[in-house]
TrEMBL record, chains A, B:
GO molecular function, a single term: ATP binding
EC code(s) of this entry: 6.3.2.1
GO cellular component, one term: cytosol
Family recorded in the similarity comment: Belongs to the pantothenate synthetase family.
Gene3D superfamilies membership: HUPs, Pantoate-beta-alanine ligase, C-terminal domain
The name this protein goes by in its record: Pantoate--beta-alanine ligase
Pathway: Cofactor biosynthesis; (R)-pantothenate biosynthesis; (R)-pantothenate from (R)-pantoate and beta-alanine: step 1/1
């Protein structure tokens, strides 16, 4: 453990992190975890704030998880700035940081260390990491289509973080809407004694959803990327006014807005907001409108941005299936 | 919770079980878990005894786990006798029993309750259980060949039991050698804060490895099934005396002994005792000799029996890679 100037303890090993959390719990304190991949923005800090309202002490983890990246994806160029992150977390009132160098067993001779756990790069050494957690249905649509190993990697690292940090509460952002639903399902199915909280998306003043990846957009790309949030706002208004009634009509219009702005659409989809199953209308259940699209990066390649909104949320409340439902079930289980 | 005559508390819900364990831990007691599928014999009770040496209180779970059975396997006829089990556990000095009716979310209209979680029978209802834990390499050989979903089911239910019972130590039998290795690997890879202990096989006086499934053998089948342990003893002697030097020679001879006695061999294999990889000789590493074979049942169908021994264990000790190694690593982590 090292203590920074601002007195925020930073733990780099599982044993040290767990010992600290157990000491907190022994003193009767409730512990919340905010898992992040670092390069923190206001969205992350809003999760820390929410965590502080749910628990006595807040641990944030900073770890760019190789198992949720494929070999062609941006693991190597994912933005990192741990010193800045720690300062922001200290200012936000976070109580400890878990910042492991590596979370996966890397066997000597088995390949390139931590990055050998990027999917498609891993070694087949019989003693290297080989255990994975999968949420088999919820992981398939949306981001699961173009990133088939993504949620398996997310669930695996979140399981590890849960076992190391032993939180009572874990806070996730709903920008990664499918991830939040997948984690809720995993927690329910595997009986984790953890309450999962999903927090609303934080946006820049112009509407762009906050993301660590925004830093990689050129100024022009950033302007063009506003087409995503403009599309979501259009859909919310059009559905509220019943100007459109069919999910495919909404999807086609939003896709058109993004493509017209020069975005390369990965998906624009409308799905059941709870189980991500297909929907045939916009009035009988809450409907997730989810978007993923690529825009040119300022360095090389493209930046993949995601965003979403839930349409027909009144229907959501009416059927008594609020967004926190699965987390609350967990809470009751304890 | 219900308290039996012999004062052994029996918990049937995850919440009650977890509350009891947390109370024990709050009092500073170390907790051990012995997961079982019931129909207990001396082998199971030896695990309880070992658990008592490792911890202050011992919880045994009794649960026939549907997700580790395939539709054509013996889930429905797996022997059950919970009242007898409880009496045996009380006599063995066990402190609590976890005996859930169901551990998987069963959605109304989604199929036949608990048995709908047998692989191949499950419903595809979008709200039913869908999260699984897999140890991708170690689960492939031996029992993974004929039972491809078996270890996925085992890892998933053990993860659930670990999250509900929150043990410091978990004790498994090495008759299920591959299962023990898979669980050790899962605990290492997912950072469970649990020490895994593997205990030696218990045998009947005539050498038959103890198993709940032995109850389903006819008297004649039981005699014939002794060919398995006779084969293992032959191999131990032949290898110790260097009368055979090649793994395939050992496998062929043991297979012959079992087939001659009327057994239908699923596998007779020699693998690296730690990582279950292939071996080309019997002297440079510890070698697992593992057997699975079917014998006629007294009711219907056949009974699948497994057994094993580790050859060249001196080599094992020499390279300082004892059987408890992974469990001990876990202990040090805490």
């Amino acid at each position: 453990m090292s203590v920074e100037d601002h007195e925020l303890p930073v733990f780099t090993t599982a044993a040290d992190m767990r010992a600290w959390v157990r000491k907190q719990k022994k003193s009767g304190r409730k512990v919340a975890l905010v898992p992040t991949m670092g390069y923190l923005h206001e969205g992350h800090l809003s999760l820390v704030k929410a965590a502080k309202e749910k628990a006595d002490v807040v641990v944030a983890s900073i770890y760019v998880n190789p198992t949720q990246f494929a070999a062609h994806e941006d693991f190597d160029v994912y933005p990192r700035n741990p010193a800045d992150d720690r300062a922001k977390l200290a200012a936000a009132g976070c109580h400890a940081v878990f910042e492991p160098e590596s979370l996966y067993v890397a066997v000597p001779g088995g390949g390139g260390g931590e990055s050998s756990n990027v999917v498609g790069r891993e070694s087949n050494h019989p003693d290297s990491h080989e255990t994975f957690v999968s949420v088999e249905r919820l992981q398939r649509p949306l981001c699961g289509g173009s990133r088939p190993h993504f949620f398996r990697g997310v669930c695996t690292v979140v399981t590890k973080l849960f076992h190391i940090c032993e939180p009572d509460v874990a806070v996730f952002g709903r920008k990664d809407y499918q991830q939040w639903r997948v984690i809720c399902r995993m927690v329910r199915d595997l009986d984790f004694p953890i309450e999962v909280v999903g927090r609303p998306i934080c946006r820049e003043p112009d509407g762009l959803a906050m993301s660590s990846r925004n830093a990689r957009l050129s100024a022009e790309s950033r302007d063009r990327a506003l087409s995503i949030s403009r599309g979501l706002r259009w859909a919310e208004k059009a559905v509220a006014e019943a100007a459109v009634t069919r999910p495919d009509e909404v999807a086609a219009h939003v896709r058109g807005m993004i493509e017209e702005a020069g975005g390369k659409v990965d998906y624009v989809e409308l799905l059941h907001a709870h189980n991500l199953g297909p929907v045939s209308d916009l009035t009988s259940q809450p409907v997730l409108l989810a978007v993923a699209a690529h825009f040119p990066a300022r360095d090389r390649g493209t930046v993949r941005l995601i965003d979403n909104t839930v349409l027909n949320e009144i229907g959501d409340a009416q059927q008594g299936q609020g967004e926190q439902e699965e987390g609350q079930q967990q809470e009751q289980q304890q």
